[in-house]
Every structure is written in structure tokens, then in C-alpha cells.
Design goal:
The complex is a heterodimer of chains A (360) and B (180). With 360 residues, chain A is an alpha/beta fold. Chain A is 42% helix and 18% strand. Chain A has 14 helices and 14 strands. In chain A, helix 13 (320-328) links the parallel strand 13 and strand 14 (334-338). In chain A, helix 1 (10-21) packs across helix 7 and helix 3 (60-72) runs parallel beside helix 5 (90-98). The radius of gyration of chain A is 21 Å and the shape is globular. The termini of chain A are far apart. The mean pLDDT of chain A is 96. Chain B has one domain (2-175): Pyruvate-ferredoxin Oxidoreductase, domain 3, CATH 3.40.920. Chain B has a 6-stranded mixed sheet with strand order 2-3-1-4-5-6, with helices on both faces. Chain B is globular and about 40 Å long. Chain B starts with a strand and ends in a 5-residue tail after the last helix. The mean pLDDT of chain B is 94. The chains are: A alpha/beta (360), B alpha/beta (180).
Chain lengths: 360, 180
């Protein structure tokens, strides 16, 4: 049954993958274009099968703080929202990062700023990758481009979050949240028992649990000398993540004269533009960062050695382009093409933008 | 084989559902498929369209600028999408409510009077299935058998008693198209 190919929306795939991964709790508040996550969980009623808690909280602020509490006990807990809701969660996310807790946050981005539109966007790149809340912290940020990746990144996000004791985010856009595609759901895993949690998470607030002492989880440390040590520990973790966890996918980079960098669904739009360009004799390659943090600086720098210029395509005014420019140290022209406010460019628009910048 | 299709009309006409059943039929035939909706916040009224791509290889962009086939259910959608049908492509439209007919002569234009057929059948909810029947007859990308199996998969079991009515609508739509 696990190998069954199914057709579903990206948001639905996240819900099914969460149940199958053995997630202990989901806390969320509805907002378009990601409401199908909560809707699907409510319809599947996993509390009757795996025992997973599904709770519609009174707000996004409540949701993220429920995640904070659940994570502190070593449980695998998650939330999902869309841009305005994720803004509300930033304080809690910073606390979770500072308390060194694993959790999964899903942002299916819509057009902003403000309440904006319900249509797709990628304008929360800065918020997700540069620390939307206060303090020196990072999230591991995964950017899915297919419904299959929406399903797969739930497990990957939790695995990384628990490995490094830091929150992970799936940063999706409204396209991959709302579109239907074929998906093979991940295998079913059992939820961990309290004994397994105590064993695997010696830091968790689970009572004395035979340890002889109670763990206290907090982000507060009023002794600045200790707080600096804490920060140094966080930074060591981030450096380790940067060494180990960079993920990206390359297309047509072997022989390319130009490079497009794009993430999420937009990378797929660009891929079609590139296929058309190649029919016209223009050799463009594509790098799709899968982890937006840690960012694939080296992979881009490597391909950049052979190209005349780079176009960064995003559903925003120019955010990831700053990381691409850092990768190539301003040694070549790096241009941006973006649509904003929920407008999605088609492959022809991307190709025309490319031609206008590179006179092809 | 790749078919890039746009289905466009008013919200409430069954545009998204029609695309969904087509997508499920593609699933039944082991094709790759993407179903990408575009609509406003309202449930009825307003424009709604869905891009469905069927292919025997991996699909890149779910968003397109031109289409092999456009299925058009109102004037606004005709005005918007007629020029985006690829040369040699196909435009299927319901003439009811269309004041300015399609003018392209480099594509196959098929008028399917699904509204009249719907009224004759006395099943308002069969409208989109009549058009889907017409589509798969005009361009046999999936079999009627795959569509019926797709319907069974897409509909929750409590609605399976509606499958015969949907099948009748599909077959009525197929009969409305006479291939040359």
C-alpha cells in the first residue's frame, strides 16, 4: 500500500506525510493558501489511529507556543500557516531556536506585505533565511518544488530538526501548496514511545524519568557570560549544518553559458523557459537551491566560473539575489526578474526577461 | 505525448472539477499529470481556470503561456485565452453566452452546445462532464474507461451513486463531437 501512487495537492501531501512520519502533534490556524493542511488532518482523524494530536488553536501566536511547549517535551510537533500568520509566529520561533528545540514550521507563502493576496509568492525569503524573529538564529529552510517534495520534506525537516536540535521550516509557495500532482507517500512509522523519547532526547522536559533531575527548558539567561556561551554553541551548530546539509539540484549546467537561479515552483517555470531557449541555441543552466539556509553558495560559485551572467527569478522584488551575489562576489552581472503581489510569470515572460538582460 | 490544457470559465461551472477528473483519468493511465488551479476568493462567480498537463515524461512548469487545447466556458475566458492556443491546437467552447465567436483559423475550433444538452438531460451538475466527454472525443488523450475509473477514485464513496449520471453526461458529450 505504501507504494501506491496518489494524486493530491501539496498541502494535502504535507498532512498525510505528517501522520505517516509519526508526528505527535499539529497546532495551527486556518489561512489560505494552506488551509488544506489542517482540513486534511481533521478529515483523516489521526488521533483515532496513531494518537497524533490535531488542534485548531485560537491564533497563530497560540499555535507556535503550543509547538514550543510540545517540542520542549521531546515530541515531534509542527505547525503550518501562510505569510501573515508566520509573521505572527516569529517571536515563538526565536524562542524555539534559542531553547534549542526541534520543530517543523510550514509556510505556504502568499503575496504580501500586509494581508496582501491569497495568491502565490516567495516574498518571505528574507524572513525565513535571515531570521524573521530577533536574535542570532537560523532555521533550516527547505524549498519544495513538487508535491512529492512537500511529502518528503516533512520527514527530512523533522530528521534535521532532531539531529541538530533546531527548528526547520518548509518554505513553499502557493503554487506547490495548491497544485495536484502524483505522489508516493512516505512509509508509515510508529510514533515514538515515551521511553524512546526519554532515551533519544535527554534534554526533554519529561519529569525525572529516572535521571534524578528535571530538565528545565528556557530561552532566558540573564547572565550575559553564559548567554554568550549559549550563542557560541548555537553558532557551532549552524556552522555544522552549513558544512553538512546544503542541498540543491542542477539542470543543464555542464555546458551552460548563462545560469538561472530559482527556488520552489518558480524553478520549474524557469526549466521550461530553459528548454525553449535551448531550442533557440541559447545554453542556459539552472541551479535550484533546495536548502535556502544553508545556501548553496559554493555550487553557484562553481558554475559561475563558466557563465557570462546570472538571472535570479523569484516571486518577490529581489531577495535570494543577495545570496547569489554573495556567492559570485560581484564578479559578473547578476540580474533579477520577479513578479510580486501574487502574480506568477509564465515561461515565456522568464525567457523574455532573460533576453532583455543578456541581449540574446 | 504531452497535452497542455487550459479549462476556463466562471466559478461554479465545474471548471476545477472537470480538470480534476481529467487529472485522475491520467493517473489511471499511468501518465504524469499536473493540475494547477487559478481562482479568486469567491466560491461562485468570478473567473476560474485550471491548467492540466498530461505527459508520458516528467512535467516541468505547471504554469504555461500557450496551450495545446483550451476548453472555454464564457466570453471573458475566450477573450483571454484564444490567442494563447498554439498554432495547430484546439479550442473547444460552449456557444451559450458567447457573443463574439472565436476568429482563429490556424487552430481547430469546436463548438459544443453543452448548456442545451445539460438542460435536455435535466442534470445541471452534469454540465462539466458533458464538456469533458467532448474533450476526450475530440482529442483522445485518455480513454472513457480511464475517466470512469478516475471518477470512482476522485469521488468519495458516498457519492458513488452519482457515477452513472456522470457517465451518461460524459457519453452525451462524446456524441456531441463528430471527428472528421
Amino acid at each position: 500500500m505504501n507504494e501506491e501512487v496518489r494524486l493530491m495537492k501539496g498541502n494535502e501531501a504535507i498532512a498525510h506525510a505528517a501522520i505517516r512520519y509519526g508526528v505527535d502533534g499539529y497546532f495551527g490556524y486556518p489561512i489560505t493558501p494552506q488551509s488544506e493542511v489542517l482540513e486534511t488532518l481533521e478529515a483523516e482523524m489521526p488521533w483515532e489511529t496513531t494518537g497524533m494530536v490535531v488542534l485548531q488553536a485560537e491564533s497563530e501566536v497560540a499555535s507556535i507556543n503550543m509547538v514550543y511547549g510540545g517540542a520542549a517535551t521531546g515530541k515531534a510537533v509542527m505547525t503550518s500557516s501562510s505569510s501573515p500568520g508566520v509573521s505572527l509566529m516569529q517571536e515563538g520561533i526565536s524562542y524555539i531556536a534559542a531553547a534549542e528545540l526541534p520543530a517543523l514550521i510550514v509556510n505556504v507563502m502568499r503575496g504580501g506585505p500586509g494581508l496582501g493576496t491569497i495568491h502565490p509568492s516567495q516574498s518571505d525569503y528574507f524572513q525565513a533565511t535571515k531570521g524573521g524573529g530577533h536574535g542570532d538564529y537560523h532555521l533550516i529552510v527547505l524549498a519544495p518544488a513538487t508535491v512529492q517534495e512537500m511529502a518528503d520534506f516533512v520527514g527530512l525537516g523533522f530528521d534535521l530538526a532532531f539531529k541538530y536540535r533546531t527548528p526547520a521550516m518548509i518554505l513553499a509557495d502557493g503554487i506547490v501548496g495548491q497544485m495536484m500532482e502524483k505522489v508516493v507517500l512516505p512509509p508509515v512509522r510508529q510514533r515514538r514511545t515515551p521511553e524512546q523519547i526519554t532515551e533519544q532526547c535527554p534534554w526533554a522536559a519529561t519529569g525525572k524519568s529516572g535521571r534524578g533531575h528535571r530538565n528545565v527548558v528556557t530561552s532566558l539567561e540573564l547572565d550575559s557570560a553564559i548567554m554568550e556561551k549559549n550563542n557560541e554553541r548555537f553558532q557551532r551548530t549552524y556552522a555544522e549544518i552549513e558544512r553538512n546539509e546544503v542541498r540543491f539540484q542542477s539542470y543543464y549546467t555542464d555546458d551552460c553559458d548563462y545560469l538561472i537561479v530559482a527556488f520552489g515552483s518558480v524553478a520549474r517555470i524557469c526549466l521550461k523557459s530553459i528548454e525553449e531557449a535551448r531550442k533557440q541555441g541559447i545554453k542556459i543552466g539552472l541551479i535550484r537551491p533546495i536548502t535556502l539556509w544553508p545556501f548553496p553558495y559554493e555550487a553557484i560559485a562553481e558554475v559561475a566560473k563558466q557563465v557570462k551572467g546570472i538571472l535570479v527569478v523569484e516571486l518577490n522584488a529581489g531577495q535570494m539575489i543577495e545570496d547569489v551575489r554573495l556567492a559570485v562576489s560581484h564578479e559578473m552581472p547578476v540580474y533579477h526578474f520577479g513578479r510580486m503581489g501574487g502574480i506568477v510569470p509564465n515561461p515565456l515572460e522568464v525567457l523574455n526577461a532573460f533576453k532583455s538582460h543578456f541581449n540574446n | 505525448m504531452t497535452e497542455e490544457i487550459i479549462i476556463a470559465g466562471f466559478g461554479g461551472q465545474g471548471v476545477l472539477s472537470m480538470g480534476k477528473i481529467l487529472a485522475y483519468a491520467a493517473l489511471m493511465d499511468d501518465l504524469e499529470v499536473t493540475w494547477m488551479p487559478s481562482y479568486g476568493p469567491e466560491q461562485r462567480g468570478g473567473t476560474a481556470n485550471v491548467t492540466v498537463i498530461l505527459s508520458d515524461s516528467t512535467i516541468s512548469s505547471p504554469v504555461l503561456d500557450t496551450y495545446d487545447i483550451a476548453v472555454i466556458l464564457n466570453q471573458q475566458s475566450l477573450d483571454k485565452f484564444e490567442s494563447h492556443v498554439k498554432p495547430g491546437g484546439m479550442l473547444i467552447y460552449d456557444p451559450s453566452g458567447i457573443h463574439h465567436k472565436p476568429t482563429r483559423d490556424d487552430i481547430t475550433v469546436i463548438s459544443v452546445d453543452a448548456m442545451t444538452a445539460t438542460i435536455e438531460m435535466g442534470n445541471a451538475k452534469g454540465y462539466n462532464m458533458i464538456l469533458l466527454g467532448a474533450l476526450i472525443k475530440a482529442r483522445p488523450m485518455v480513454s472513457i474507461d480511464a475517466v470512469l475509473r478516475g471518477l470512482k477514485k476522485a469521488l468519495p464513496e458516498r457519492h458513488h451513486h452519482l457515477i452513472p449520471a456522470n457517465e451518461a453526461a460524459l457519453r452525451r458529450g462524446m456524441n456531441l463531437v463528430v471527428n472528421e
